[in-house]
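Run log, item B.
One chain of 250 residues. Sequence copied directly from the ordering sheet:
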Amino acid sequence: MNYKILVPVSGGKDSQTCLKMAVEKVGAENVLGLFCDTKFEHPKTYKHVKRMASMYGVKIETVCGGSVVEETLRFKRFPGGGARHCTDKLKIRETKIFCKDLAERQGGFEVWYGMRSGESHERAARYENKIDEELYHPHEIMPSKYPKYLGEMGVRFKLPILSWSDSEVFDYIKGEENPLYGEGFGRVGCFPCLAGGDGWKVLAFEHDDFGREQYIKVKQIEEEIGKSVFTSGVGDRWENSGQGCLICSI
């Protein structure tokens, strides 16, 4: 089976939009999804990834190059700033390996990434001169992450929703998104994203039984590496209020 389009999926709305678009363009039999498991996602995200495969009639391969916990302990620091080892090691590295293997087996194909300029100032600057419908060599999209040899093997990257807004994405997938969005989370993936803002971490830790289990796990990591997962007063105030202690005592 030769696939025309590979779509890396996270369980989030943007990659889901790309998956749906790809299926509508070339047919489900020509599309392959790729889920890079960090072993730190919410159970609802894992369930949603399986649901997407059924919903769009595609195969979604799952690969795993380790876990967020393992990487954090290995680097002795939580991801953040310019050191997002969770993304670099567990997602980009695994996608690069998968792309190389797939290209060796079948030849070239397109990779549709769900990046949007409206997500952040950083992404807006990074993709300022890129066009939604254009095909690029992988290293032209992420110069420090993807090697030139992938382009030589026929792999091309596309950013089909680069100029889309949040509302356009939600309208397109028509209420079929990951349920965590409806529960107050603006982004989904790692639960919580340890490189994200402290407010989102607190929201996740308080959210449900799984969030409380994640908080206990994070406190154990803090003990081992001697660093706090929180980077601002938001987290400190929450823990000093006694809420964190209440969770750990459950």
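Observations after the first pass:
- The radius of gyration is 19 Å.
- The chain has a mean pLDDT of 93.
Flagged for discussion on Thursday.
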